[in-house]
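re: the backbone from monday

yeah here it is again, tokenized this time
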């Protein structure tokens, strides 16, 4: 590695010619030429992986050939609590410099603790406020105060125009954005989607701690998030179908059941369920994720859940069942001695209005009988229960003549006409609502749904 700064002129792979400059002191960092373009910083604690490389590439693409990308590598002691893994946190600086250079970094700033905190731990620190006391802040008291203090110092030392952070650490990104806005830092904070392994596990420097069995259990984190996403997608599709239906879907479900069309009746029943009452989105998403995590708690080794929370990204408070807009479903858990976090963004749209007739105290039933009670509005508990299959119609009695044949009953479940022998019950049982519209929602710790296309956030 050259001891003097080599100006960046990216080759076809986007790597600066000569590799990145490794600097260790604030003085050497200030001596780096600023170039004619903007400067971007990517802050890491080292042990770089593809998630970090994605951040560096995003920064390089944003600043262009005339800009400058600085990667910081510093394991910050202020953000580790008592009993956490500060001493064993992986330190791989040589490999980090190579990876950063290949991704497009111009310089790597890797200061010592004495360089960042001359004279010891700082007496003046930045506090994260209320947002820093929930979820990760509750599990790791003081964690975000340490994060904000070091981020503020590194922003001062590197003097960037742009700072890139991974969305995998969603709460960290939120408090950093709040600090930059509240304290008027002249820097744009840029979030980059999470990067995942082929099996869905979010990339993290701590993944290297996991044994084979522990890694299999850890897949429950992403599987739970994907289950919530897929279940919500299925409900949104059912509500859209209900909104476009040409007749009350409750009546259609009963009519299909009367004809013995069990599978179609179950599908219509699912649409009717989705259309009843207010949207079930938040409760459905939570229930789907909890089911996967509960299964994982019985594995060997087990997953030990810290929290699962559906929060407003603006302040990380829990959202209610009537919430509309974007929310973050965040999860944290331990597998063995390794603590992992993950999250996914979900969008909750307004629900379709209930049918006017169903909203009245009573309406005419499908058989024309007055006083037919409307379908009870679904509750959060109902969201976890598959609907019961529509009842089978009674078999027609064999008639000796057309005059002896029983006449069809005028009810939601009429008997079959006598012209043909009674059909055998369908060998295919009715499916629950999610089976009708959902494709492969994960219901076990190993995700069965395909992870989101493209990267979704990098980790520190």
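seq for it, each position gets an aa:
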């Amino acid at each position: 590695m050259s001891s003097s700064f080599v100006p960046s002129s990216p080759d076809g792979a986007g790597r600066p010619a000569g590799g990145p400059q490794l600097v260790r002191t604030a003085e050497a960092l200030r001596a780096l030429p600023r170039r004619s373009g903007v400067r971007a910083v990517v802050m890491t604690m080292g042990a770089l992986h593809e998630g970090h490389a994605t951040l560096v590439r995003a920064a390089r693409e944003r600043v262009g050939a005339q800009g400058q990308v600085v990667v910081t590598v510093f394991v910050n002691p202020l953000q580790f609590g008592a009993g956490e893994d500060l001493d064993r946190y992986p330190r791989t600086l040589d490999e980090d410099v190579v990876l950063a250079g290949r991704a497009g970094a111009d310089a790597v700033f890797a200061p010592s603790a004495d360089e960042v905190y001359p004279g010891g731990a700082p007496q003046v620190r930045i506090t994260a406020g209320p947002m820093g006391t929930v979820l990760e802040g509750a599990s790791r008291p003081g964690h975000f105060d340490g994060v904000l203090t070091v981020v503020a110092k590194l922003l001062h030392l590197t003097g960037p125009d742009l700072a890139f952070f991974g969305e995998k650490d969603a709460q960290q990104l939120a408090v950093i954005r709040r600090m930059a806005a509240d304290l008027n830092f002249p820097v744009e904070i840029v979030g980059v989607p999470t990067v995942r392994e082929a099996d869905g596990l979010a990339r993290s420097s701590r993944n290297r701690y996991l044994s084979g069995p522990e890694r299999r259990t850890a897949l429950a984190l992403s599987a739970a998030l994907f289950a919530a996403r897929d279940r919500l997608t299925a409900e949104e599709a059912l509500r859209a179908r209900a909104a476009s239906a040409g007749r009350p879907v409750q009546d259609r479900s009963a009519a299909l059941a009367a004809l013995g069309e069990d599978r179609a009746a179950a599908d219509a029943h699912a649409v009717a369920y989705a259309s009843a009452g207010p949207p079930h989105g938040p409760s459905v998403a939570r229930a789907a994720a909890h089911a996967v995590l509960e299964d994982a708690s019985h594995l060997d080794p087990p997953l030990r859940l810290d929290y699962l929370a559906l929060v407003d990204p603006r302040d990380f408070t829990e959202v209610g069942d009537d919430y509309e807009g974007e929310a973050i479903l965040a999860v944290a858990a331990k597998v063995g001695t390794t603590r992992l976090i993950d999250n996914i963004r979900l969008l909750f749209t307004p629900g379709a209005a209930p049918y006017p007739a169903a909203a009245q105290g009573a309406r005419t039933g499908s058989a024309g009988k007055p006083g037919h009670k409307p379908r009870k509005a679904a509750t959060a508990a109902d969201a976890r229960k598959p609907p019961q299959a529509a009842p089978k119609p009674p078999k027609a009695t064999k008639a000796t003549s057309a005059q002896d044949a029983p006449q069809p009953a005028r009810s939601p479940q009429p008997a079959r006409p006598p012209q043909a022998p009674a059909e055998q019950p369908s060998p295919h049982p009715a499916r629950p609502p999610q089976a009708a519209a959902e494709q492969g929602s994960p219901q076990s710790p190993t995700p069965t749904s395909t992870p989101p296309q493209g990267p979704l956030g990098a980790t520190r």
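The CA atoms of residues 112 and 118 lie 10 Å apart. Residues 212-244 form the longest helix (33 residues).
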